[in-house]
Structures are given as structure tokens and as C-alpha cells.
Amino acid sequence: MEIGVSTFVEATPDVETGEVISHAQRIREVVEEIVLADQVGLDVFGVGEHHREDFAASSPAVVLAAAASRTKRIRLTSAVTVLSSADPVRVFQDFATLDAISNGRAEIMAGRGSFIESFPLFGYDLRDYDELFNEKLELLLKIRDSEKVTWRGGHRPAIENLGVYPRPVQNPLPVWIGSGGNSESVIRAGLLGLPLVLAIIGGRPLQFEPLVQLYKKAAAQAGHDISKLSVASHSHGFIAEDTEVAADKFFPSTQQVMNKLGRERGWGPYDRTSFDAARSLEGALYVGDSNTVAKKIIHLRKNVGITRFMLHVPVGSMPHDDVMKAIELLGKEVAPKVREETFRWEVESLVFSNPCYLDDY
To answer: Cα Rg for the chain, rounded, in angstroms?
Structure first.
């Protein structure tokens, strides 16, 4: 069970003062957060790609590269790379370069993206939304699998037996598929034998279990070994020494962001009642003290089949010290509890599903 952090490097107005942190400062803070995550033993850190004023990271690979030479073990991934509006050649080159700097710790999380501002920015038509992703994922995987590439598509000039460099340390360079819970994207990931990331940010997380099973079924039908495939979740949350303190600190910025997005997308108001309901064991917010958050992650592992959990923190702008403390608690207190309980549970499951193992006890 891998435990990590994801961020969109948000630069929204401070809830109390209205002041907005500069993009430069927020990016530097995120580098410090990645370094800390490595120091406290977390497995992975993800940076999301956006192209709008309230998010500071339009180039996750550059941000991750800044942290790569200052870290030793943690894996470094996009969360996500908006592949539909990107050039797969440059995406591969950027992350192969990151892989070199980190000595084999880079990953790409490819997705359509839930924001669409990159499409007009780079000259793409939203009517080609699905077609763009399918075509560009095909090219990205072709580049990953072969040094010399010959390829033709409808939205990018053809490539005729050209090399793409540098080549990564890892072979193959890990490519994950990010999904908001769309069955089509889940099936695609399974058929391709690619690891899957589910954005579990609302509703009941246990409702995603059928999607995990659908993913595994598609993978098995395509001949892939499902025991080697990983399923991750990306979920909002925050950790403090006390559960109510955590809730009180995390709610204001979360409400601000959710209501802003709600106005853009036609959602209803987000209030404290909705927030508190999502903090329950069956809810999608992982907010509380270390025991509370660990219990929820274990619940997700046992009932949905998640093998990697990424805590998305912060949502909106929060004090950097509070975010650093949450990361410290995740690494030093939550992760060990989750790993220990997951290991114990899996061993017991193995033993009692295979009675022959009882002879060893």
C-alpha cells in the first residue's frame, strides 16, 4: 500500500485577508513540501497541470525536477498531465528528463483533465475532446515502447522513423490513466494494462468498487496479469493533531474553492453540513487526526481495492506551515498505521483462503 500527496499548487485568495500568494512563492513552497514528503517516508508526490490564474503549476515536470535532486526515494508524478492538449513527444521528453534527474522515479499520470482552459490556449477544439485523448495516448505509448517512432494521426503531423530522446532510466516509463469515474476510461486503462488513478472527491468512495472490478475484468480479458496492476485514489483531505482542529482549518478554503467551481459549473452551494457529512467513514473527505485518516484509508483499501492513496492537500490556499504539518503526520503517523494494518489483513486473507498455509503456524 503506497501513501502519498497530490497538489494543484493553488494560489487562491486567503479566506480571511483576501491576499493572494504569488505563483513563484507557491511553487517554491511545493518544492519544500515534496522534500518533506520524501524525508518522512511517503511513497509518491503528484503535481497537477492547470493553465489558469488560481493554479500556479502549468508545467508539473519542471516543478518535480526542482525537487528531484533534493529527494532520494519518493516517486514523482504529474496529477494529471492534460494529454489531450499536449504534444506527447514533449511530454515524454520532459518526463524522461525528470526520470534521469531523479534516477528512475518519474511517472506520468495522463488524463483528459477536468478543466478545459488548455484547449483554446493551445489551439484545440473541444469537439475533439475524446478523439484527441485517444490519439495522443496512442502516440505516447508508442514513444514509450520504441526509440524510433513511425506514426500518423489526425491532430498532429506524422512522424516517420524518428528517434525520441532522451530515453528514460525506467523501461518502461510508468504511465497511469487518471479517471474521474468514467467507465470508458476505466475500461481503456484495463485493456491497455495501465495502472489506474480514480479521483474520489465526492459521494461514497465505496461506489467506486464496481469500477475497480470493471477495470480488472477488462485487463484480464486483454490478457494482462491483474496482480501486477495498481489502482490509486486521489482524495481531498487534511491532517492535524486533533480531528476538530483539522476540520476547522480545512473547511474555509475548501468551501471557497468548491463554491467558486460551483458557480462556474452550476453546482449548488457547499456548506459545513455537506463538509461534515463527507468526513464520515463512508464519505470522501479524509480529514481528521492521524487515527481517523488512517482508519478511512484502510477502509478504502479493504472495500474498494485501492493500492495507492494520494491525499490532495491543500484545497485552496492554506498556511504553508499547516500543510507541512499535515504532510509530516501523513508520513510519520498515518502511513505506518495503514501499511501495518494492510499487511496484517492481507496475510490473514491469504492464510484463510488457502488452508495449506495454516501448517506453517
So the answer is: 20
